[in-house]
Input
Amino acid sequence: MSEAPPSDYRILVPRDWFRVDLTQERWRGQLKIFVDKEFAGHRTSAEVSRSIWVTLRNIAENGLAHGALEFFLRTEAPEGSLTPASLLISWPPMPRGLAPTPEDFAEALADRVGPDAEVEGVDLPAGRTVQVRTETTLDYHVQMPGDVGYLHLAFSMPLSGTGGSMGYLCDAIAQSLRWV
Output
């Protein structure tokens, strides 16, 4: 008898990360609030602010096309930076029972991401996970109970990279994932 799929998940994200709920129609407005708040009072041009808005909107729209649920953003530098650190949580649609094993998934991802990425299977409290690490990104593909696929946690740290304290924080966030 297979496990029942979870009805939801819980994940601990620090309070200073701005949350955009991509399951709601108002997500564009939420994203605009983040950009306006981050660049208010800074000496950045309207063009730079607009460019960041467009980049983040495109990330969210692309994520939505692949099952994105939530988008968290955090400015890494006190004075603001051009691209914030982010976490995009997705549940790509997959028919029940067709998800590859974590080992097969890791092998397929290793072929796809190239030699600059480290791909390995790891155990998180939420289950067996395929982790993909590059210099500035950290992805966790967490196998969901009930054979319904993988929850994808996609972290991006363009300023600090994955080797520093932000990388450790992102790992701790992934470790906090629990099924409901």
Remarks:
- The mean pLDDT is 89.
- The first strand starts at residue 9 and ends at 10.
- The longest helix spans residues 46-64.
- The chain has four helices and nine strands.
